[in-house]
């Protein structure tokens, strides 16, 4: 198979960074006084490594629930003589004032603070210490960074006070930030005077004022010779704004897009405005007018459109004003406008809602700072994946994964993203996906399940997990998946469909896995959870998939796992078994699952005395005659009794029924089975059967074991012959043939 781009292994740098961050004490650090991390004195790290450590740390805290953040992490980078930082990207609640304060001696060149709501005006003062080196700065969404604690001496009347009695800082400016070229002030709070703030900056190249309402932007012309990128997303524009923009002749990227759902905008785009941009901004290579309503028709009448292949040549443009472009745009944002559906659009990349390519471009362009737009774009992708076939699957998957990671706490993105993942990971796309990519999907799905108790997200996530091979593909997150599913099943109010999918997943997870996995899951409360579900169903007198899957899951989790068998007995499992048998006498699948489980319990010598009651033995004996599910119920009942008989007559501590009578019924049952029966059972080991061969105390147990082996190796030779040989069955059978106590027909079968 061709190697996929996403399949290349992580770089050694990435692996080492990840390892060090997860094991700081064992690698770069030691603990001082059992609480503070300190760097080992002989460690010196260049900025290439330190930047990666900080940026990866932020990613891990954000996307890996198992990763524990360290209170004193940023202090590791407080001394530029041993650790150098240059370009760092910090996000959300992870960063507080003291963290920035800790690294204030570093000569930062690039500092992105995105949605860091915990930062206050203390951090504004810290920024000043980077002023002589900083080239790029983003304060996007740092909504409290211009607030400080109210000064004790009371507040002047002109102070703006927010609810926590904090005061807006009025006197901060970018004075002294002589090298600053790129600045993002997106979602800055009202009340800060942007013009005064920015005036000291000599030569700005890029400015982002997303979500800020400014009636007068005339001050922008002071950078008309340097400004190459301007973003005014969601700013309500006017004729004055347009005139100012037209003077910024060096602009290469202009974004005046808006979210058409967010609020009422008076401004409407016209042919004249677009003409003005095309004529004046001659260097323009990227323009975003997404979400705008066109006041008049800017399109070329369709009869004049040059038909034939779609063209990006400006001369053929279906959008009239763009016929004046010298060359096609690199990017044109037309998301949620009518223009994106036209034939000839003069741009290499277009964001829109017309087709898969445009939708993916939209997700790519807006994910980081515009989750409100991204969730609608992902919704469109969901429809494409559901109804048509995705032609750019890997790109689509990676973009959705990135969006889900980036906006872990945004409900809309979690709902639409988890739904899209379900369709993007289903079997028809399976071949195109690498192990690495599929693991990334599982990680974001589990993050979603963890953060959201919301029904739609939970259901989407559970359904997506069903697209994976279980347990193999989930093995690397085994504990976590089980914990999350048990969590869902233990909630008091439950959605029927989620319950059904979760039980199905739990069952699949404990099927065909190692015993240490089963023991670990047992300790998490798996047995108890399943029994509670069964109890609820019994009370409602319903035997549905949940009931059957729950018993099946108990059958799987008790397989060769004595601790879990014991838990089943301790939590009144036998009482539930009898009640289910009585309530649902006709349910064959259910009987098979319950008896399979009791077969596992009966294999544990220490637990067998608990099965030795008149009531249980009578029930097992009567089930020998059952024709439910072929021979399965009868076979399993006989298996349970075979183990009990193996303990000898002295262990038979009951008067009724008599041991001989039960033995007779067992012989009759075994003789009634068709030796070529196809089976509904799966053995990982023959050990519990083989231990019934070398003994003379219960010939009927010996016969049941021999019949079981004979049936399995003759009906499924490829699977079970190697297992029989590997586990030493051949010499045991040979020895048994020589035993005087063995019955003739048993020896025949053994031969």
Automatic annotation (TrEMBL):
SUPFAM superfamilies for this protein: ARM repeat (SSF48371), RNI-like (SSF52047)
What keywords tag this UniProt record? Acetylation, Leucine-rich repeat, Repeat, Ubl conjugation pathway
Domain Protein zer-1 homolog-like C-terminal, by residue range, is: 404-750
Q: Which residues form the Zer-1-like leucine-rich repeats region domain?
A: 196-337
Q: Which Gene Ontology cellular component annotation is one that this UniProt entry carries?
A: Cul2-RING ubiquitin ligase complex
PANTHER family listed in its UniProt record? PROTEIN ZER-1 HOMOLOG, PTHR12904
Spell out the subunit comment.
Answer: Interacts with the ELOC-ELOB/Elongin BC complex. Part of an E3 ubiquitin ligase complex including ZER1, CUL2 and Elongin BC.
Query: Which family does the entry's similarity section mention?
Result: Belongs to the zyg-11 family.
Name it: Protein zer-1 homolog
High-level lineage: Eukaryota, Metazoa, Chordata, Craniata, Vertebrata
